[in-house]
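ESCALATION

Customer reports they have been waiting on this structure for their group meeting. Please prioritize. Original submission:
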Amino acid sequence: MEFTNFKDLKVYKPDPEKIKKQYEEITNRITNAQTPDEATNAILDSFKLQDEISTNFDIIYIRQTINTLDEEYSKLNDYCDEIMPVIQEYSSAVDKAILNSRFLEEIGEKFGKHYIDLLKVSDKTFKPEIIDYLINENKLQSQYRKVVSSAQIEYKGKTYTLAQLGSLMQSQDREVRKETNELYWNFYAEHDKEIGDIYDKLVKVRTTIAQKLGYDNFIQLGYDRLLRIGYNYEDVKNYRDEVYINIVPLSNELFERKIKRIGITDPHYYDYSLTFKSGNPVPKGNCEELVEAASHMYSKMNHIASEKFEFMRSHGLFDLESKKGKAPGGYEAYVPGIKAPFIFSNFNGTSGDIDVLTHEFGHALQAFLGSSYVVPSYRSPGYECCEMHSMSMEFFAYPYISLLVGEEQDEKYRYNHLVSAINFIPYGVSVDEFQHFVYANPEATHEQRKAEWRKIEKKYLPHRKYEDNAFLESGGYWLRQTHIFDSPFYYIDYTIAQVVAFEFFIESLDNYKATFEKYLKFDRLGGAYPYKELLKEAGYENGQGIPTIELMYNSEGPHKDTCQIIQQNWEEIGINVELTNQEWAVFL
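Update from on-call: job pushed to the front of the queue and completed.
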C-alpha cells in the first residue's frame, strides 16, 4: 500500500459477512486440496487476508487512542471490539483445516516447524462458544482506557492529563512534588471502585473463557495466548525467586543511597521519583527539537537505523505529545499493509520522552527488518524477545545521548537510566506475581486484590512506604498499570528482556559496531524460532533458558561481572554526577 502520510490512510467499517465468505473459501480450499501446492497457496492467501484485516483494525485503534474523544473512531473501535472475536472464529477454522490437512508435513516444510507449533498452541485458545465472552473482554479493556484517558486535573490554573503531570511529579521543589503526586493518585482513588469493578469483570470473564476451553484457570491460557513455547509458569516463578534473592537487596541499597544523596531524612512516596538534588535529567528541547536530535543520533549510530527513522518522520508515523483525550502510555504498532510501524506516546518533559525515542524505535526497527517474512507470526518474536530489541536500543543510545539531553546531563542520564533499569526488575516481577495471585484466586474481592498487591510490593519493593497516602497504603498502585488490564502476564517479559539487554550493552562497550550488527541480525530473525532457539541463533548464552540474575554478581558466570564492567567504563570517562566513590562501589 503506497502512502504519503499516515493521516491520509483510509479505513473502512469491517464487513463480517464478507470476511466470513473469504475465510470460508480459503478453509474449503485447504480442506479439499489435492496437492501440497494447492494447500500452501490457500494459506498464502489467508496471510494476505489477515494482513488486510489487521491493517484496517490497527489504523482504527491507533487513531482512537490518539483521541478517545473522537466519536467516529470511538464507534469504529467499539465495533471492532465486537466483531474481532467473530472474525477469530473464521480464521481459527483456517488454522484447524491446516492442522487437519493430509499435507501438514509439506506445509511444515514450506513454512517451518515453528509455524505449525504456533498453530497448535493458538488452537487451544479458541472455541466458537467463547465469542460473546471475548467481545465482553474487549469492551472492558476499552472501558478502562476511556476512564484513565478522561483525567483532566487542575493545578495552579492549568489543566493536565495524567501523563502531563509527570514532569511536575519529579520537580526539585518538594512541595510541587507532593501536591502533584496527591492530585495524580487522588484521580485513581476517586475512580477506585469504578476501575476495580472493570477489573473484577475482566478477571471473571477471562476465568470463564479459560474454563470453557478446558483450562483449570486463566493462568495457562494467558501463557498460551502469548504463544510461550519452551518455558512455563514454574520457570517464571524460579526466575522471580532469583530476583528476590539477588536484585531486591541491590535495588533497596540503590534507593537508600539516593535518599541520602538528595538529602531527605524522612522520605515520602512523592520523593521516590527524584534521583538528584539538582533535578533529574530532562530532554533538551521540545518535542520537535527532540525528534530532530534523535534523527541526528541515528544518523551517527547506523545507516539502517537512520534510514528507517527518517522514513517514519517523513510519513507521519509518530504521535508523541500528550494532549486532552489521548489514551495513556506509549506503544509501537506494526501496520502490515504499509510494512511500517507507528509510534504512539505521551511526551511530558521527563527522561521518559527519551526512552520512547530509543525503546519504541527499537521495536520499530525490528518491525521494519522483520517485515520481509511472509508468515505474519514470524515478523516479530514473542514479547520477551520483542522487549530485548527495545531495551537494548536504549543502551545503544548511550554514546550519543548528549544529543538528546545536552552534554551537561550526559552522565546524569546514563546513571539514572542504568539504576532505573536495575530497579525496574523487582517492580516487573511484582506485577507478574500479583497477576498469578489474581487468576489463581478469581473470586477475590477488589480490596483483597489491593491487599495482596501491597503484600507483594513490600516483598520486592520494601523501600516503598505510603503512611501519608491511604489509597497507596491500601494497595492501589497497580491500578495505573495498563498491562494488567490489557495484556495479562505480559509484564514479566520486560524484566527478562532487561537482563538480556545488559548483555548487548556489555558487548557494545568492547566493540560497538560489531555488537550493533549482531543486534540487527537478531532483529531480522523476527519470530521464526521459539524463545530459546531464537536467542541461540542470535548468539546469546541466555538462549539456553530463562535469563538468570547471577550476571549481576557472579564474576565467574558467563557474563563476567556486569556491574564491574559498567563501573570501570564510566570511571575511565571521569563520570561525576553528584556521586561519591563509595556510591559507585555499589556496582562492584
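Sent to customer with the following note: Confidence is low (pLDDT under 50) at residues 543-588.
Escalation resolved.
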